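Lab notebook, page 48
Experiment: co-folding of the full assembly
Goal: obtain a model of how the components sit together before planning crosslinking
Operator: M.T.
Materials (sequences as entered):
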Amino acid sequence: MNAQTHNVLLVEDDEHTRDRLARVITGHPQLELLAAVESCGAARQVLREHRPHVLLTDLGLPDGNGIELIREVQADAPTTEIMVITVFGDEHHVIGAIEAGASGYLLKDGGADYIGQSIMQMLAGGSPISAAIARHVLRRFQGASEPAPTAPETANVPRLTGREQEVLRLIAKGFSYGEIADMLHVSSHTITTHIKNIYQKLSVRSRGEAVFEAMQMGLLKLDSGR
Amino acid sequence: MVGCKPTKRVFTTTLGWVASFILPTLLLLVAFFYSHTRHLPDHVLTLDAIQRIAHDSPLLPGAYEQGSEQPLPHNWAEQPPPHDGALWYRSILVLNVPPNRLWGVYLPTVNMNAAVFLNGELLGDGGHFDDPVARNWNRPLYFSIPNGLLVPGENEIHLWVKADPPRDGYLSRVYLGPDEDLRPVFRQRYFWKVTLVSLITLAMTLMSLFMALLWWLRRQDTVFLWFAVSGLTWATHNLNLLVVNIPVSTLTWEWLRHMTLGWYVIFTIIFVHRFLNETRPRIERALIVIGVMGTLILGLLPKSWFYPLANHVWLSALLAAGAYPVARIIKKRWGLRDIETKLLVTPGALILFFGFHDWLVVNGLWPRLEGYYIHYASPLVIVVFTFILVRRFVSALNESEALNKELEGRVEAARATLESNYQRLRDLEKQQVLASERERLMRDMHDGMGGHLVSALSLAQSGQAEKVLIAEVLQRALDDLRLMIDSLEPVDDDLPTVLGLLRGRLQPRLQCVNLKVNWQVRDVPSIPDFGPQKVLQVMRILQEAITNVIKHAQATVLTVRTGLDADALIGDHVFVEIADDGVGFVNPEHRGRGLDNMRRRAASIDARLDIVPTDRGCRVVIRLPRVATH
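Observation: model returned without errors.
Model output:
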């Protein structure tokens, strides 16, 4: 891992949590706090001038939903790694965030070590995924393993490979990346890559569905040209 | 003729009925009488007077036997008839020129049998003259005269007529004329008297058999049975008009004929009762008794008593009885305004009217020129009943269609009601599920998180507790809340899925204390009814066990294992085992309350909990039955 420091934009409306997370980031040797703000508006102001390496954002913000913010950053600054801060790590929030472009999530009450490790893991290319989320991702992709004949527009929506499904199933049963790597006789890094790919597919899939729906509603036309 | 009380209202509402039944009846009658009053050609000779010869031998009387003048027609009942029922007639015809065409002799009516002689030659006869005498009383006789038999000047014609009983003897006018003029007249009368009656009788028989079949298929409709019985009796009675050579003696035949007429009236009354839906068992019983008695008495009477009794008493009684059903129908007709009943009035009245005519003829109160009429009312009966049957059939079809429709409607309504009931039931169930789920959540929150929050609050309020302690209690509250959220996950009755969720929650903490996890979770069979309640309790027990290991066991490896216990005695169990390589049971006071909680929770979900110290450390095993226990 290189010794370069990564700057972090923190968006969290709860003052105590924000302070605590800010302290953890400031205290981390490889992380640097770009700004700690309490709203989407403030975050956008910062983002006009800066391109942070990392965006840590809460979802329920006083002036909007963090998911919109994630979508904007994903579109304007694709290199920025995005992490969502959540109390429960429950799939409804997390999956929405991942679909919008987030690469992982942080539990709000996590210790300093956990927070630092999670952010560094993500920067190293890893994406944490819980058993509950693995189950939901599996379910999301279910039925998409066969091409849908009635909707050719969705044909380019990615599907999970057999190996990816297997990995997700094992995660759902509580196995760690290392244990899965051992069981499948591959390297731990391979598993991380699988997870990263799954995240991407999920995000692409959600965009594809959005496009499909938009076309269905007549909002978009493929042949309209540019 | 037909019980008419022509008020304006009735006239307008029954116009169709008049047009369709009274008019045909009148037309029938007009045609009937027209055919009988038809003018004969001028050159036909009509004998309206003849000589009656007192000669009681079947041999042709000689020219010396004197006769007395007798006008025709000659009704024997009006004068004392010959005691042996046979009579010779003679007439002299004077022809200026002999005819150059075929001639014939035509007898429109003779009772019962006649033989015709011309110039001493037998032209022909109507059959037997011995008992039983051939019954020609209802059929005209016609005899051709061979060419050359008629001579210019005087021609002598003899007729020998035999009747049984003698009182019934009758000779109509006698006609002689060219065959081409006379034979069509004979043919027409033959049609009306014989052919038509045969057809009517056949039709009535078929109709009655048809009705009998209807009754056979629908026994509850006794109206069909009585129609059939009455119709067949009538048809039998009509044989009297058609059969010439009877197989029994004349007396027996006469008795049968009166009996069939009598029973016909009785059966018709019963039929009308059924038709009008009237229950009058007393009248019917009385009629049957009278019928049986009349049958027996008339059957046993000697000949001299039989005829007057049968013709005067019996027929009068029948005529009176016949008025009764017609009166019933007419009464109903005004009351019910039912088309079928109305239709029945016409044939009923016609039968009665003709019956009355016949009764007059039999009793010598009306010229018996044309014989009896009553059988000519039958076609109307057949027409009316065919119409009624067709109408009933159609209305039954319509009704069944309507019923079907109504039934379909009702089924649909019932289905809708059922559906709405089911919907209500489902709503209720949903409400119940919601209520019980709410109750469970309340209980679970009270049981876990609520308690932790209360103790954290009291710790904070005491002001003396360390922050670390408060944080720990709050952490437990948060953990429990997360367990509750996880327990709502659909886990498909799969234990490894539950363990996966739990590990996700505990992993950060396990990492913090450098506790190595040996995850020996293997796929196990599904657990029945592994709903949120059970899942939460299993998670809490496991979390408590793992937290204990983290806090107190000073272990380096935590092993989580799943498997299937095949136990014949208590049934199959899926188990999950938490084992550590720590210091075993220490500080029992501290762990005591936690263990009690774990046991209580295990008991609440019918799970077995074993906590056993091992060589190195401790092992906690939860066994979940694979068969639901109730």
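Interpretation: Chain B has a mean pLDDT of 84.
Next step: discuss with group before ordering constructs.
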